[in-house]
Amino acid sequence: MASPPVDGCKEATQIGEVWTKVHRKGRRRPNAQHVIPSHHNGNNILGSQPRSSFLSLPAITAEYNRIVTQWETSPCCHQLRDLIASHARYSTITQAICFGLGTFDPEDGGWEVKRRAHVQLAAFLYMVNQIQIQQEERKIACLFQEPLFNAADKEFIRSLGHEVVDSPAGFERVSSSTLVFGVHLYRDIYARAIRKHRPAIFVGTPREVWEDCHGSGSLEWPESKELDEQCDKAIFPEDSGYTTFSSTVIHWKRPKETCQCSTLP
Q1: Does this model's pTM top 0.85?
Q2: 207-214 and 222-230 helices, crossing angle to 10°
Q3: What does the alpha-carbon distance between residue 123 and residue 168 come to, in Å, rounded to a whole number?
Q4: DSSP structural state of residue 1
Q5: Is the peptide bond before 4 cis (omega within 30 degrees of 0)?
Q6: How does pLDDT run across 42-88, given as a tens digit for each residue?
Q7: Cβ contacts of residue 32 below 8 Å, gap of 6+?
Q8: Are 217 and 204 contacting, i.e. CB atoms less than 8 angstroms apart?
């Protein structure tokens, strides 16, 4: 779930269990500032009723296969592979949880919304696959929590062999050996994801972005501070021409015996 570049920082809010998104034109602006969620717009409340499905499973699958094939030849994918390989010594991952992926079947049929969801899914599953290779093919269970999913979205994810859960089940299953993946989410969602355990890998908006948005006052978020201090960090490779992963950082929790400071390249 991504939102457009904004001028100035706005505190993110959550309405019920629906995580709203703001539509954008998709192409990246030169000199774009941090991408963060904006205030909830009451007109975007989806209500508690499940969204209707417009695309069939074969149609979603065909779009995914086409987009993932293109993405796997991109510099973004190649740079991500190298980043993962350079962090092979880090903690063993037993499960991976993707929060707020977005829908593959938007009501307005918007291509940018669909592409963003497919590319983020491709990157998430690529990370999992590369880590499994490092772990000598030890299986990593994947689950997805996204209130925007309709029946077609859920069917597609399950057809790939993965689990879909309703909130708050995903938050409750985060452990110290989890990969947490959530791009451009509200701060409240991140807070719930890391509240009980600091995950082994966290992909999302870094603390320094929230500090910039907070202004001159101190950011009171001890879990985020602890995660930041425990991790080595690297900027997530850019999806060329798009803001798909802008202001997104991969956090690798360092082995306990290591005390080196983390830096962004």
Answers
A1: no
A2: 140
A3: 24
A4: -
A5: no
A6: 233 344 567 899 999 999 999 999 999 999 999 999 999 999 999 97
A7: 5, 243, 246
A8: no
